[in-house]
Every structure is written in structure tokens, then in C-alpha cells.
Amino acid sequence: MLAEWLLSSNYTVVFTGAGMSTESGLPDFRSNHSGLWKKKDPSKIASITALNKNVEEFMEFYRERVIGVKEFGPHEGHFILARWEKQGIIHSIITQNVDGFHQEAGSKRVAELHGTLQKVRCQSCGKEYTSETYVNKKFYCDCGGVLRPNIVLFGEMLPQDAFQFAQEEAEKAELFIVLGSSLTVTPANQFPLIAKEKGAKLVIVNLEPTNLDIYADEVIHGEKIGELLKEIDGYISNE
Ligand code: NAD
């Protein structure tokens, strides 16, 4: 059915969360068994307070996350989404992920709501560096300011341009597909509801149930995103 909806929709927006990248090898935050959230509480470390008060632990945590992301890359599911964009099957991606895998796979119209771990920037002057800088344990800018990952920390606003793009795309969507998000992080989790309110069909694909399942036209649990996308891609190619 999802394949049929994809083929008949004139405007499809995909919304991804950490579950999109677990098949690349990156842990998510809240899965029952393996989530990163179970080991440490990112709301404490990944926060503007930690950056200001506990800067060494903050830098070490993020250096490890940067290295973690660099060890992996997009999987087949990311590449299928990038190809679907070229083919006009989907129109944009709104992601909460900070790994940069959608762009690495070739997706162009991507709103990174929570920024990216692929870059760091100076907290004082705003100068950007690649995140190699962190890997090489350079934690301070040439101006002396603290370098921090170019992501949204707990307690910070979302980037205005990504937010606006996501808002416009959610409003335009005829079909809005959530892939791998617990839909617990606000305000990102408002976009599926905005799309639904504006008349889109809402599909939620997630291993576990989410609080927004009741609003969905279709919910797919217990199936891995990569496998599902391959299945749908096979169906679409034969049409
Ligand atoms: P989350 O961890 O809260 O939820 C992920 C969901 O994905 C879980 O409910 C899990 O059941 C599901 N899932 C895991 N693997 C799956 C698979 N293969 N197929 C289908 N479903 C699968 O993630 P979230 O909702 O994105 O919110 C977490 C926050 O953490 C976001 O703000 C994000 O920025 C950040 N984060 C990002 C990354 C990344 O960039 N890859 C990784 C961890 C956390």
C-alpha cells in the first residue's frame, strides 16, 4: 500500500530520525535495548549548560560521537531515498539526524533540524571548521573561543532556515512518511502533525510504537527501514 501511495502522491516528504541510521551502525537514543540514551543522559551532556560548565566532558563526548559517525556511512536505504528524490518520487527530507548521511548518499533537499556533526564552529566568533578538527583534539578556535559541534544542543533554538524549510515542506506534503523516530523530541515532532492537519496522509515506520501513531493513516512496526525501502523500491521499479 505504501508503494501505491508513493506512486500516486504528487508531493511526498520523508521525516527521519535516529532509527534511519541504526542500520548504518550508529546507535539511536531511545531504543529499548541498544540506545545511546541508556548509557549516558545526553540531555545532561549534550546541553548548553554542559558546554558552559563541563566543557572537557562535553568535548570528549562529542569527539567520540564525531569519530563514531566517521566510522560509518549511508546504507542502502539512504541511497534509495536519494534516488527517489532524483526520480521525483519523494520531494524532500526533514531529518533530526546529525550524521550527514542523507547528503552523503546524494539527497539534496534536506532540512537538518538539529544541525550536523560534520562541522564544528566557534562559540565566540562563529568560524566553521570540519569536524576533523575535533578528531585531532583541536578544541579551540584560532580566536581562542571554544569549538563546539554544529548541532543544536538541548536548550538551543533550531536553525531558522531548516525550520522554515521543514514547515513549508510539511504544509505542502500530500504524503508524509516518518522513518525511525520515537517522535518524542519537540518541536521536531510537530512536523508530522502539521502535515496531517494540512491534509497529508501520514505514515509512521518505526520498530516501536510512538505517541503519534493514533494520528497516522498507516503504521508499520517491527520492520527495519532499510529492508522496507528495498522492498518498496523493488515494487516501484516493476511498475
Ligand atoms: P530516537 O532514538 O528517540 O528514536 C529512534 C526510533 O527508531 C526508536 O523508537 C526505534 O524503535 C526506531 N528504530 C531504530 N532502528 C530502526 C530501524 N532499523 N527501523 C525502524 N525503526 C528503527 O530518535 P529520534 O526520534 O531521532 O530522536 C533522537 C534525537 O537524537 C534526535 O534529536 C537526533 O538529533 C539525535 N540522534 C541522532 C543520531 C544520528 O544522527 N544518527 C543518532 C542518535 C541520536
Helix/strand layout:
Blueprint: H1 2-8, E1 12-16, H2 42-45, H3 48-53, H4 55-70, H5 76-87, E2 92-95, H6 101-105, E3 110-112, E4 115-122, E5 128-130, H7 132-135, E6 147-151, H8 160-172, E7 175-179, H9 191-197, E8 201-205, E9 218-220, H10 225-237
Parallel strand pairs: 1-2, 1-7, 2-3, 7-8, 8-9
Antiparallel strand pairs: 4-5, 4-6
This protein binds nicotinamide-adenine-dinucleotide.
Residues 17-19, 21-23, 26, 28-31, 35-36, 96-99, 114, 180-182, 184-185, 206-208, 224-225 line the site of nicotinamide-adenine-dinucleotide.
Describe the structure.
The protein has 239 residues and is α/β, with parallel strands linked by helices. It has 2 domains: 1-25 and 74-114 and 158-239, TPP-binding domain (Rossmann fold, 3-Layer(aba) Sandwich), CATH 3.40.50.1220; 27-71 and 117-151, SIR2/SIRT2 'Small Domain' (2-Layer Sandwich), CATH 3.30.1600.10. 36% of the residues lie in helices and 17% in strands. The chain has 10 helices and 9 strands. It has a 6-stranded parallel sheet, sandwiched between helices. A 3-stranded antiparallel sheet has the order 5-4-6. A hairpin with a 5-residue loop joins strand 4 and strand 5 (128-130). The longest helix is centred in the first third of the chain and has 16 residues, at 55-70. The radius of gyration is 18 Å and the shape is elongated. It starts with a helix and ends with a helix. The mean pLDDT is 93. Bound molecules: nicotinamide-adenine-dinucleotide.
